[in-house]
Structure formats: structure tokens, C-alpha cells
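Retro notes
What went well: the complex prediction finally ran end to end.
Inputs used:
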Amino acid sequence: MSFRSLAERPSGRTSGRTSFRSLGGYVIYVILGLYVFAAVAGPYLVPYDPVATIVTERLLPPGSATASGTAWLGTDGVGRDVFAQVVHGARTSLAIGLVVVLVCSLVGVALGAIAGYAGGFADLAVARTIDVLMAFPGILLAIVIAGLLDRGVDVVIIALSVAGWIGFARLSRSVALSIRERDWVDAARIMGVRTPAVLTRHVVPFLAGPVVALATMELASVVLSEAALSFLGLGLPPYIVSWGQSIASGKEYLATAWWISAFPGIALSVLVVCIGLLGDRLTKRFAQR
Amino acid sequence: MKLSTRRAVPALAITLTLLATTACGGSGDDSPGDDAAGGTLTAAGPIPIENLDPHGPSSMDAGTQLAARALFSQLVISTGPGEFTGELATEWEPNEDTSQWTFTLREGVEFSDGEPVDADAVVASFERVLELNGPLAGNFVDYTVEAPDESTVVFDAGKPDASFVAKISSFFVTPPDVSDASFQDPVGSGPFVVESFTPGQELTMTPNPTYWDGAPALEELTFQSIPEVSARMTALQTGEVDVTWAMPDDQIAALQGDTSLTVETVDGPGVVTMWMNSGEETLQEAAVRRALWQAVDFEEITTSLFPETGTPADSVISPVVLGYAPQEPVAYDPEAAKAALEDAGFDFDTTLELQFSQPQFRQFAQAVASDLAEIDVKVEPLEKEQAVFLEDLLAMNWDINLQQIGSQGYDAATNLGRLYPCAAGRTGYCNEELDSLLADAEATSDTAEREDLYAQATQIIWEDAVGMYPMFVGMPYAWREGVEGFVPAGDSIPYFTDVTNSDG
């Protein structure tokens, strides 16, 4: 009896864990789906003008009635709806995140693959550049760049991309280094296929998996960095909604009107955690090791 | 719940300290019994004290002025519009055209090192102000000073200057032989002397036993800097700080609910002033500037954002300032404003930059931009770092500007007379009639006549809308029970000479 139960327990546990894990997977996809929906369709469903203020309706707690309906998540210090800020902020965060990751992955993969495949001077140049950039913390570099230039979407994208491509370049370089020794690459070379074609047809496709996994992780950190820059007042201009700015604007009201900072903060943390979990799953699937 | 637990710990600490003090008082007799009643007091103002030199570059800095009022003596103290009491001076007289002012000094006043405070010290201090050419020196261009005898000082402006007494009220007397290095542990003739000083953090002072008006009762006075507003409020509620001022309106309600605190707002000389750069093509017409002013519902903004400290303004200078003259308020009327802008051919495509540096005006600026957006005028609030803001302000590198302007010494001369003449070049606005009114006001010592001239000047500035003047700013103070004799000062620089603290 006891034997059986002991023997059965591990299998029972494993199956429980598997179902929990797949359930967890679903939850992640559902949550991320909600964010994407909010980012794509939200602004059409929840109108919001970051310039318009209604000072008579400031600092209302969640659920208060306002002239334009109900403020489900309350209003901020100048009477703007916090729910609308969360929805519109999702678009800003995801849009900037995707653009930065796209730029970083294109630059990183291109440089990394060329360096890894070609070796020699190209490899040396790219590897040393990576070393130099890695000496600075990425966010510090971003703060310096964003601080020197005027506030704007383009500046934020540049500031976050400057250090963001390093990860992609290192990954692509190491994968390319091992792939160029593979037989099919040798075969292509011997058959006289030109170098650019070898790179694009026979090396880069093998980068897709790990790069997608890395891109997901990178997306989470870019979303976080963008919020940090905006929080510090270095990121997006005031007429673009961003979670970082919303959180910063509620800083002085933490004791009296917690909802201004709390809801954008929760939205940001949940998004970053979910992207991170998704990234873990993808890494596990595509990991070469 | 949270608050009461937070308060319990310091309360316990205070009780223990009190017990310890009584115990010491019982056993030892090293302190004179009567003075011990004063207690110790910690005050935290909004601006850190970076420097104790009241003559140099930081001479007009609120932090330095606060410390100077405790450590040094002024010739006169300004107590209200056109009202002064003598500190080092007992009498002061202008000559006929107010170009020369004679001050008679109090007898027997000594510095804390025993040297006498005589006419030579005053002359040396005044000359040091001129030599260092800091912000204070801007009030005394081309002045000369001399000491005919030990207790008489004569200031000669070379031209009429009726508001000299108001200007000299920010001037402090130090020993004649000071250098920059003397101000880490300065010698002064004020009610307190420095015990220790860490720039930007903490200034601890003890009473000056040789103060001419009798040493203050406080045993120790500390000015602390707590930059974060919420931390400053918590420090006040826990008893770490006994007095604070210039709290944001949103924090005042929470403090008012605390029975161990007294919260009081006093009228100050500050006016929220939003100059519109008349030197720019888009804003050079008075009709355009007036229309922009008309388009913003300042009454609603003021009562919503500054319910405790703000009152809608009806003049360029505050009611507590000499020369105040109420004007017809500009009524909120967006339709009329839009029509007026269209008539004047206003370019609705330009974006006007609304520059400011003080964070308490962030929401104010956003609300103004919002109201102007309603009539399709694009305004972009731009918060700048203080130093950059000042540089751009002086370089006229702005469209609309938002700042709080006070009137030093409660006299219109230091506001209207200083900022609005063509020669000042501060607003982009130039009007010869206004210039001559302001010059005449400087040239007469008759107060009624000066008030009349400033009223006329105010009317021109108001009607031509050199700026928008939305709000008078009151100064809120809060202090803990146990603090006695504290008098809130409208100019946000209080004195602590007669304060005691039975809890500290």
C-alpha cells in the first residue's frame, strides 16, 4: 500500500506539474495577447489626450464617476484617466520595444555573423568593439545619450539600441564560428557559392531560433529601460504617453493617491515578467547546448 | 495605522530624551537653569544652505539668506509694505531727492568675537558686496559708501533711489576683515553662532551670548536639508523636524489632519508670473497676449491645484507689497479669445514653448497647455534645470515663461522697477510711458506719490498683458506642538530669535 502510493506519487506529481506548466504557458500567452490587443486596438477603444487636463477631477480614486464616464483606475494629479494611460502606454512600450529589438537584432546578427564567419580583421574589430561597449552598463550609456539629446521617440530608440545589439552580435558570432566548420558550409564553399550567399543561405538560417529567444529576453529589458528613461525625465516627451512618466508623475502621491503609480507599475511588471517567461520557454526550445 | 506606529517610536525616543534631560538637570548644574527652557529646534526649509557668505554669488539665495538671518545682522528688517524696523540701524534718512541715505548705527553692538560693529564694518561689508558683484550687488550699481564717524554711514546712489531701504534689508554686516574662507565658521553679530556646518546638508547653531538684544532662549538651532518633499513631511510628522515651510498643497491636507501640528498659510510677496515674450513676432501684439491670457481658466486651475496657498491674482504685485494696485480681472472667455486671435492674424501653426524650472508648477503648466489647446493654440510645457532656465530666461530664449516672482523688501521697486523698464530687457516689452512712470517712482520719497505712480505702471503692464498674472502665492508653514513664538514670514525666510521648543 505504502509502497504503491510512494511509487505512484512521483508520476502523479510529474503529470500535475506538466499540466500546471502548460496551464502557466496558456496564461502567459493570454496575458501577452491582452497586451498586444491593448496596444493595437486599445487606443481606438479608450480615447485619451495626454495634453488635455481636467483639473477639477484630479486625484479621484479608482471607480470614481467623472464627466466623461467612470475612471476605473482613478485619475492623476491633473485629472487624466489612469486606465487610458495604462492602455496607451502599452502601445508606446511595445512599439518602442519592438523597434529597438528589430534594429538591434538586424545590426547584431549582421555584424556577428560576418565576424564569426569571416574571422580575421573583421572578427577582431567587431569583438573589440563589443568588449569596449560591454565595459559600460547599457542603461548608463542610454542615460548619457538621452541626456545629451532632446527628448523624443527617435532619441530613445537610438539610446537603447546603442548597447542593445551587443547581445545579438555575441550570440551570432559564436554560432557562426561553429557553423562555418560544418560540412554543408564547406560543401557550399567548395562548390563555389559566393560568400554572401553562403552567409545568408547556409549560416544565418541556423541563427533564427536562438536569436528569436534572445530577442524576447531583450524585449523585456528594452521595455524596462524605456520606462526607466521616461521615469527619469530623459525619455519620451510629455505629449507621448508612457508608463515611466505615469509612474514618475505619481511619485509624490504614493501616500495619498497610490493608483497613479501603482497601475502603470503593475502593467509594466506583469508585461516584463511574462515576456521573460516566454523568453525562457523559447530559449529552452532553441538552446543549442 | 501606519502613521500611529511610525509616530510611536519617535514619541518614545522623545520621552526618553526628556527623562534623560531632567535627570541631567537634577544632578549637574553646568547649565544656567533659566536658559534650559528654550529647548532645541530643527527646521527644514525647501532650499538647502550651500554657503554662509551673504555677500557673494549666493547672496540672494533663499538658503543663504535664511542662515544669514540667524548668524548676521541687517541694518534694517523689512516687516511689511513700506515698513521697517531697525536692527543695526536706529535711524535712517534720505536727502531731498532720495539719492543719499544716512544711517545711524546702534551703540554697543559687538560681533561674537568681541569686536565692535561700527561704521567701518558696515562700509567694508558693503564694499565687499560691490566687489564680489553677486546678485545682491545688482541692486547697488554705481553706489558709494562712506563713514563720516563711528556710528554714521552714508550711502550715495548718485541718482534718486526711493526704495533703497527695501533693497538694503537683504544686506548683512560681517567683520571688516573677512575672506571667502571665513564663512565655514563665520563671526557675526546675529542671534546665533555656528556650531557646525556641512554645506547642502546641515547647519547647527548655538545662541550668541553677546547678541545685542539678549541671547535667544533656544539651546540649539539646526537647519537641515531634506530634498525629497515626502521625506520632509514624514520627518515633520515623526518629530525629526520641528518646523518646515513651502509644502506642496497636496501635502497640506494630510498635515492638517495631524493634531500635533500647527499649519498656517501667510500672504507672501510671490506672484506666479507668466511673461509672454513681446519681442517675438507671434507675441508682439498686446491683443494676442491678452487673448491667450483670456483663454486660460486660471481661476479653476488655481482653486484646483493650489487650494491652500493660491488666490487668483488681480495685480502684477502682491497685496502685501508697497505699490499694489488691484486691476480688473481678466475673465475666462475662450470664444472671445479665439476670435481675437483670428482677428489679429495669429499663426495657429506655431508651437509656443512654456518654460519653467520649479517642479511645483509642472501640473500648472500642463493645465495651461490644455486650456490653450482647446482654442487650437499649441503650447509645449518644457521643464528646465534651474541654471539652464535662468540662462535662457536672461537670454530671452523663450516664448512663455512661468515663474514665481517676489518683491524683495516688500517694495514694487524691486519688482516693477527692476524688471519692466526697456533697459532691463527682461520681458521683450518696451514702453516709454511706463519707463518714465517707473523712473519717477524711484525719484520721490513721498510714499503716496510712489504708490500712485506704481498703480499707473501696473495698469499699463496689466492692460498690455506683458505677462499673465494668474495667482498670488501664499507661504504655508507647519510646526509641531511645543514650538512657541514662531512667526511665519511671508517671504519664506523666517527668524528663529524668539522661538522656544518645549518638546525638543
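What we learned: Residues 267-474 of chain B form a domain with the Dipeptide-binding Protein; domain 3 fold (CATH 3.10.105.10).
What to try next: split runs per interface for comparison.
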